[in-house]
Design goal:
Response regulator, phosphoprotein, Arc Repressor Mutant, subunit A, 8 helices, Rossmann fold, 230 residues, WalR-like, alpha/beta, four-stranded antiparallel beta sheet
Length: 230
Amino acid sequence: MNTVLIVEDETHIRRMISIALKAEGFKTKESSNVQDGLVLALKEKPELIILDLGLPDGDGKEILERVRQTSSVPILILSARHSENDKVELLMAGANDYVSKPFSIKELIARIRVLLRDITPVIPEAERIRKFQDLNLDMNSGVLIFGKTHVSLTPKELLLMDILTREVGVFINQTVLMRTIWGNYNSEDTHYIRILVSHLRKKLSSLSTDQFSIETSAGHGYRFVFNHSE
């Protein structure tokens, strides 16, 4: 049974979320401030954290930044802040998803299930090790291997790399990527995919700066290519 930590200072919202999650088979822990929320996040080690930003003793981002120092637990931001800049900043800081208030409880639960599903992406047994010239992708452990260098991927980076390398050199539409990785609820939030691609590009660059890359084409999407084909 997955445990979800809810850090939210508005009692009625916190209780509503808790009741709905328990009805779906989850266990919940609750906090109304930064200090207690951080203690619970580090001590209880929940499978997912729902995090409000406007807390009475500080900004919920403090919890996000502290937890990200030691854990990759999915963190879903719940906030009344609506600007795209706020969303991008939080995603860059390590948040996995962002839901704006007011929100639908059904959508919230759907997003939670997607985040928990992404912890262990489903990969066909026959494709555990995918090889491309000198680059190997270990689908089981989520590791890219180039020579003696290894780089670990997050679940979403692994899923993106999986999609892009099924057909090397073929453009994948941005909407298709969004819906496959985040589901229909986030299909219009294109900044999500831009951030994810940016993170994956940095990891690929740490392996080699000129052997392979992710290309972008307006109207076509993204593709994985080798820059020096044999």
